[in-house]
Amino acid sequence: MTSVKEFRIEEEATATDLGRGSFVFTDDYSVFDWGKMPDQIPQKGASLCAMGAFNFELLESEGVPTHYRGVVENGDVIQLENASHPPSEMAIDLTQVPDLPHEGREYEYDRYHDAAGENYLIPLEIVFRNRVPVGSSLRRRTAPADHGLEFDEWPDEAVDLDDPIVEFSTKYEEGDRYLERDEADAIAGAADIEDLASVAREVNRIVTDQASSAGLVHEDGKIECLYYRGEIRVADVVGTFDENRFSYEGTQLSKEVLRQYHKRTQPEWVQAVEAAKAEAKRADVADWKSLCDVDPEPLADGVLETARDMYCSGANAYTGREIFDAPPLSTAIGAVRRL
User: Fold this and answer.
1) pLDDT tens across 10-35, in order?
2) How far is it, in rounded angstroms, from Cα 256 to Cα 242?
3) What 3-state DSSP class applies to 161?
4) pTM of the model
5) Residue 270 burial (CB count, 10 A)
6) Positive/negative CA dihedral, 329, 55, 205, 33
7) What is the Cα–Cα distance from 64 to 61, expressed in whole angstroms?
8) What whole-number distance in Å separates Cα of residue 310 and Cα of residue 241?
9) Domains (range + CATH), the chain
10) In this predicted structure, what is the pLDDT of residue 170?
11) Closest Cα to residue 93, out of 22, 16, 15, 4?
12) Residue 106: beta bridge partners?
């Protein structure tokens, strides 16, 4: 289903009813949309599962509907606090995900919704931003005035936002792109775009407050949602170090660490990926990866260990629970700084 987690179906969703299934989190990782990279990060999957479960339970306690049912242990669906060891499987409700027909980069969303009815995964990612760091794509695509900011141009340092920025991007297109509200509203189908933005802001508030209580800064993130009988429910996984960007004492605590490490140590591969994406866009080809003639190299054992501690120590700190046998977050972050 995805590059870092497997998808199990117990009961198929129908036009009228949700199904049941689960995510099985692996230790694979992906950067720059490459898909499965050539090595694994120990216990990364369990850390994402634990943080995702914690956040879903937090959202449910705050009245935000989700597709979460619990974590799976010995075949039983239980709450995270009752798990005897770090979980790697999450039980979820399933919705319909029709095929999205396309010709090149022309996607036929009307056919997606004709097949979906009123029980479907909304084919959008809803992005929220609390900070605009240097290098953010937002700086290339927009001006500060577009967001009510009192700058003539973007400053050379990160910009913290009083009010989060909410954006929409495509989910199932081979090369995802940010959307104007009118196009996002059309792609959302029966789901109202302002309701989606409202859900995203509430999720952002809850995750930001939890991060702050753990001494973390929540910089940005995204959610995916399903639509069922007129209700929007948060789907996929929420508030992990893969979906969101956090920092601790000024140092990144997220998958961004791996992105930046590859930029520094494997620039030829990163440049080849960017060139392949640009060529695919020019040629109106969906599969950019087939145009890339450089493959990523595996990471050194020490780098994988540092990444493992970042994920596991970060999960412990965020949840306030000793789920993993991992060093204190300050120690893990020190190793990240030395990468």
Assistant:
1) 999 999 999 999 999 999 999 999 99
2) 8
3) strand
4) 0.93
5) 19
6) positive
7) 7
8) 9
9) 5-337 (3.30.470.20)
10) 96
11) 22
12) 103
